[in-house]
Each structure stands twice: as C-alpha cells, then as structure tokens.
Known about the structure:
Number of domains: 2
Distance between the termini: 37 Å
Order of helices and strands: HHHHEHEEEEEHEHEHHEEHE
Amino acid sequence: MKTIEEFNAFVAQQLDAQLQQLENQRQSAQAWVRRMRILGVVPVILFFAFLMWVVIPRQENNNPNSLSIFLFLGIGVVLTLALSFGLRRYMANQKGMQEMVDYKQDFKNKVIQPIIRFIDPAFSYQPLNHASYEEFMESGLFTRQEYNISGNDQVFGKTGDLSFQWCDLKVTHMPVVTLRGMGHDVIFEGTWFIAQFPRYFTTPVYIVPRSTMMEKLTTSDTDYIETWNLGKKVTTADTAFNKLFMAYAKDTDEAQQLLTAPLLAKIVRLQERSQAPVYMSFSNNRIYIGISHGEDYFEAGLQESLTDRRLLTDFYLDFTGLMEIVDDLRQNGSIWTSVAFSRT
C-alpha cells in the first residue's frame, strides 16, 4: 500500500495541471450560473413593472371587466415567456454553459480514474454503480425495511485472495408516521466497504458507534438497529474503543479473539480520523464497514474549490485505514473456519 506522502506527491506531480484546468472550468461554470440566476429574474421584474405601470392604471380608468385588461395581461405573459426563452437561448451559447455541463464528468475522467489507477491499475471503477440493497442488508447491522438505496462511484479490487468493493452510498427510509414537513430518515450516508475472504469468521461480530446518530436510529419510531438481536454485548480491554463503540456477538469468547488490540486500535484510529459514525460487521466470509461521513468523495461541486485537496486526501486516508483493518484480519488465523454459519 502506497503511503499518504506518495499519494500527495502523485497528486502534486501528475494531477496538478488537470486540477488547475478543472478549477478554471469550475470558476467559468460558477460565473455562468450566477449570470443565469440574475437574468432569470429580469423577465419577472419587467412583468410586474408592466402590471404596475400599464395594466393596473388601465383597470382603474376602465371597466374592470373590460376585454382590454385581459388582452394586456395576455400580452404581458406572452412577452415575459418570450423574453425568458430568448435569454435562455442566449445564455446557452455563452462561455460557461458547456463547462458546467462537463465539469463533474471531467473531474472523474481526469482526476478520479488516474487516482484509482495509481492505487492499483487492476482496480475496476464504475462511476454509475453502487452496492445493492441486499449487499447493504447482508451486513446484519440494520433491520430489514423498505430502504431507498442510492449511490455511485463503485470500485472493485482484489489483493491476493481477498476481493473487495467500496462505493458512495446513501440509505433513507420514510417512516409510516412522520411530522409534517419532515422528510426521509437518513440511515446511512458515506463510504460503504465490503471485503470478501476465502475463509469464514468463526462467529458473527457487530460493531456500532456510541453517537447521536446511533441514538437516533435506536430511539426513533422505527428501530433501524436492534441491538438486542445482534447478540451479547462484548466489552473489550481497549477503553478508547469502548468509549466510541459497542460490540455484539453470539459467542463473546470467539469475539474476543477477533477483536485483538491491534485491530481495535486501527478501528479507533479510523473513527478519530474520519470524525464520523463507523459501522462494522464480520459475518460469514465478509467484513462490512460503513463510514457515515456524509461526503461524496468523487463528486466535484461548483461551490468547492479544487485548490483544497482535502476530499482527495480524506478519501485516500479512509481507504488505507480500511485496508489496514483487512490486513490485520488476514493475519489472525484463530478467527477463521472453513464452515459458513447462519445468523439465525
């Protein structure tokens, strides 16, 4: 695994020109959007001016039911729509329109794809795909509900006998009863990582965060995490871990063998670095890790300057942190078996 220093050097040496070009493209697109918003209100202002200075005075001086009033109103509406259409056609041909349309895709083509190749040329990047509903539910962390699953930027990779994927994922649910004006419950939003091993964990183990999000998911009208169904509570020897997380397993002795001191330290480090709720599940021959940071690392918005490389750095640090956890598990021979188990 390449270090963060190597990653930063790669970005500075190989992507600096592309990032500067994209920054200029972003600024041009942002200026176009501002001009479009300003011009968009011009027809409305002119229509109200037409009402105040032409239609209303004419109504006061004539019979309110006069056909001329409706005629002038119709003329005003037609002129407003025509002006709006003309301004849109004009702006469509101005500098910045095409930059805005192409910006997000250009960012993925010129920055994200080279970064994926830098990590490993064999990795497969599928910008429109994401983990499925079943791949989310198979973690065993969340109760089965009619969730709405959306996401993108799915990456598949393999290292040795281990295959994995990660993607940006958003999971929401509309409660049966909700307050007026309240929308969907956001169950998860961030990085969803799945690694598949050639062998099986000896017991399923679940790790959930001690956080306000955890309290929301377990105390809302809909219980999205049923801790009582995850097994017995596991208390580890790592006090820092115990302050941040709650661990559950059917077999606590087997869980203690999995939750070694080095692994717990890596999990704590991942949470402290991301400053976001971290969910983990060790089930059958897979590990599921969710970092609910609310970021979409591979999406470039017009409001975020590309001179700030924070999102790229955060993505790489999250990825290396995930792979460190996976490598630690691969080296712990006592946690594996050749037999699959059922959660029930």
